[in-house]
Here is the input.
Amino acid sequence: MGEREKHMGKIRILSDETASQVAAGEVVERPSSIVKELSENSLDAGATRIVIEFAKGGTRLISVRDDGFGMDADDAVLCLEPHATSKIRNAGDLATVRSMGFRGEALPSISSVSRFRLVTREPGADAGIEVMVSGGKLESVKEAGAPPGTFVEVKDLFFNIPARKKFLRGEETEAAQILQVVHGLAISSPGVGLECRRDGRTLLALPAAGSLDVRIRDLFGAAFLDRLIYVPPFVGEGFELSGFLSKPGEGRRDRLQQWVILNGRPVTCQEIAQPLREAYAGVLQGGLQPLAVHHLEMDPTLMDCNVHPAKRLVRFVQPEAVRRAVFDAAQAALMRQRPTPSPSPAQSPAPVFRTPEPELPRRLEPDPPPQATSLSPQPPKPLETPHDQPPQAPTQPQAPEIPFRMMGRVGDYFFVLEGPEGLVLLDVRSARERVTFERLIRQMETGSAACQRLLLPEILELPAREHAWIADHREGLAEAGFLLESFGGLSLKIEGVPALAGHREPEKLLHEVAASLRSAGRLPRGHGLREVVAKAVCRSAASSLTSVSPEEAALLLKELLTCELPYAGPFGHPTMIQFSFAELDRKFGRA
Here is the structure.
């Protein structure tokens, strides 16, 4: 027997039933997949209202009703055939497709793993058509009374494939996944009325909205909308980006409220998620993700949405252009949050505070910035003559002219302000971090960071790794105002520290800087290194704050309002939290 004959009979053509179930595995991952496919078909049919209902996490029942243009009897049967679609005619159409669905896999795949019912009617038709399918087998086709549009009912999901059903999660988890799909549908199509019911109970009843902000308010509430800033259209080559992003300091641990809508379809897209996170690096606490509703309209020839069975992932022809546009749009939106100080004094009574405030500790006058830092073994250089006269006490600052009126203080570090839009709480520690961070970055970039010399230099013995990190980044440390000398072996002599660092012990400050450098990895001289060093220094400056007087807080607020990103510290903690008058009215039951 020849080799060819021995291998004959091992390959088989799958039966239609088995093949349909394999295809269903690509499209019908879980109940939420069905909701997504059916609702996208409704959008493609021109629906202005969609009603979604499900029971027992979608395993017992899923139904989607729309008022779209419906189908005639022939199309109602043909749409259940594999790869039957009205969206494309040939392979060339894939490059320009703008519809939500286009493969013709959804309905036959869904009907092959459920008890399936389709009722549809074209506008102007005398009657509708009802098609019944069970486990992929056509059971009946008949006329039925129905309003114009399409109604699809899916019962007993995976009744004929028990093994698939075992891999579904609990009812609450599957219900949450469905609701996430519904939210994506609501945000991607604000002009479509949407209703969602679970186990007979209405979860959402959203009227058609004339704008995206109205839909966001109706879906998530006015308080959520208050956490967002508008991103006006940002036009790139072949695409336009717009939407809403979170205010500085506002975020959450996951990306469940980070939406990317590409040509009307919610997608997962690292080319948008990553630059968005980078844009918020200085205004959002570590580990948090910014809130986002990004609508991206793009020439279909510049992308490929056919790389995933559920069309959740996309590929861009020019991904770097998209990344840059997202980053620039986010940065521009954050920059627009900078407040403008009032040109004239606020007309308000002087603030009244509870107790007299002590002065902040006095500081030494700073020296000019060091020109170089040496860490190679060499004899110590003679120090300059230290300041032998005590510095003069700083004059008490006068209350500045600002858009906010200071009302009082809560605790040691929070001040209550009244602004034009409501009540504001100022955290002077985060404010000091932001002011110090931006000031030091500017000084490092221009070579003007001041060094505060120590009256008595300190000798510090470092672990080998910390010594190595400091040695590798000595130029950046010198830019910030550190004056360091090698003192043999693993010892360093600290002769000066950044003047902006406050009154933190030099040894602790240098350990913090070394730890920050170690966490960031080896950084070339430039903006990245400056940020790491500046963050360590500004944290030290904030931790050295003692009780702050009202006048000092007012002066700090004035400095804060001149910053590029005043509403969050460099570690993402908010500097100010606002309670709008509208929010106060709601909390007191007046709205």
The CA atoms of residues 244 and 293 lie 5 Å apart. The longest strand covers residues 451-461.
